[in-house]
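thought: fold this chain, then report.
action: predict
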Amino acid sequence: MSNPEQSPYDDVLTLGDIAAVLTDRTLLRQFGVVALTLLTAGLAFGLIPMLFGQYGDHNLLQLAGGPGAEQTAQTNQNNIGRLVYIFAPILAPMLATVVTFVSSAVQDGRRRTVVPAAMAGAFVGCLLFLLVSTWLPHTQFAVVENAFPFDSTVPPYDTAGVLLNGALSGLAGALGALGAALAGSLLG
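observation:
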């Protein structure tokens, strides 16, 4: 950037400039909507194994063993919890893209403000989605003799692995949010 006076202070970024950007209502609203929606969806997704495993129709929830196999509620809960682990990294970026598109379509802010906020919200939201949706089922895993996957021991929760998967899923979600925020802001 330059100005006619050739001021040496033209490109200086002050703490006041940073504070103004971080306290902008549109930016905070866009970030919050995307991140909190994904956090809430992760909470709901993480509750599925507990609810279906304990209270669902066990005949409908058989995932292994064939038609004659009897499965306990804990076996169903373990199996459905494993499904959450499998699908959470795939589901989070897709949800981030959809939520970003919808929230960007109704925002009245400038595209330069809305898009980075949506991307940051998608990244943080995907990370939180994976943490919550995998931690909740893991708290309910238990050993069931002669039943896959935990017939002898339940491994400890791998926080570092989940954080890495959450960050990678967050990158994919942020890329999806980039396109969705641009498309949504064109509609608005």
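thought: worth noting. The helical segments are 15-22, 25-55, 73-106, 111-140, 159-187.
final: tokens above.
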